[in-house]
Protein: Tyrosine-specific transport protein
Organism: Manihot esculenta
Amino acid sequence: MAMSFSSLQFPTISIPCRKYKFLHIPPFHRQSSKSKSSFHLCHRPFSSHSSTIFRCQAQKQQEYQVERLFSNLNQATLKREPGSLSSAIFLVAGTTVGAGILAIPAVTEESGFLASAVACIVCWIFMVVTGLLIAEVNVNTMCELGSGGVSLVSMARRTLGTVGVQIACWTYIFIHYALLVAYVARSSEILTNFLGIPLWESAALFSLVFGGICYFGSQRFIGGVNGVLVLGIIISFTALVAVASGGLQLDALLKANFEAVPMSIPIIALSFVYQNVVPVLCTNLEGNISKVRAAIVLGTAIPLGLFLVWNGVILGSIPNSEMADKMIDPLQQLKSTNGVVGPIVEVFSLLAIATSYIGFILGLADFLADLLKLPANQSSPLPYILTLFPPLVLALLDPEIFFKALDFAGTYGVLVLFGIFPAAMAWSDRYSSSSSTVKLPQLVPGGRITLSLVMGGAGYIILSELRQNFGLS
């Protein structure tokens, strides 16, 4: 089929040819990802009238204006399919609002609402910063390699070398499989209670339905599904808050025990995990850093609001005498006091798990495709089989693995991969002499001080947990 490039509008990068240099020269027209992307760069004199532009730094710290890095093309129509910002926000919000929200009241009841609210806000800022650092390195890597669909493997290889790749690979795979196992185990339990079918059928049904959506669905379809699920979460969440707030005691919200806050940090940090979909986000939004920044900030702000309201309602509605019991399960307490709460909690839990499940499937499948070096322009089922099958088997072997998987993944995996690693990659990307001379502006200000604080904070929590677990404190 003949194709006229004159009928297509390609993005431009406004850097004079004599001052522009790629370490890897991008091809004129290259297929770049499963989402049917085309990567193209062309040079032109700088124009102050360019629309939707952002700065790019080249040799000698000179700044230039660039538009999006590439265009997503539909293979059938050869028309551009620009990434939807609303779909990106829903993807981030849906991935963030997972099963972790159900555990937050239980791990923060000792610290109290005020202290836990401060911890939630600090963790939110921390996770937004690390997500933006991943996006910064991801877009710079796409710029250098001349390709979209860049996963954490390529980012780690480019910035941290072979050792960094090995640590990133195994930590990434461990976190995703641990959380996918937890999600399948909990969702199959809920579906079994609702449908009255065997546990293995519930687990298989959940995995096949949402795995099929991720494999066969387009970007817009998946974004629409996430939007519907997030809407369902908001509705069921509102119903839960309305029912639970009947016994709200305002005095109980004033409790603050900051000494107990560090114990809750791993679960709170786990509840804000979304960074696994940032590479997918950058590709879907065509490397447009302003859209990526907005999607990350707004997409995580929604869960932050949900977490704060949910935690306040739960901690403020449990009597102080019962709060003294450290083994109390706030959700079980709600179910025992009001029979209406049980079904609402189950619906809310299933929807929250489903949104996170979609995000983790997309993130791990994209990661495995890059790790296996599969052709970027082919939609291979192998990454999805490797993503869906092992968690399904493990969840069926140990149906009680839900909380164990959440705790271990949050304590060690998340703070390493989505705490220390983003700052380390950004440090190498920004300050290494071997990195590319063409870079986008930094998404996180503060330079080395900010990066040091990020790595130091994550390392401190990890060491504290290790000391506590081994009885060294």
In short: The first helix runs from residue 85 to 96. Residues 9-72 form one domain.
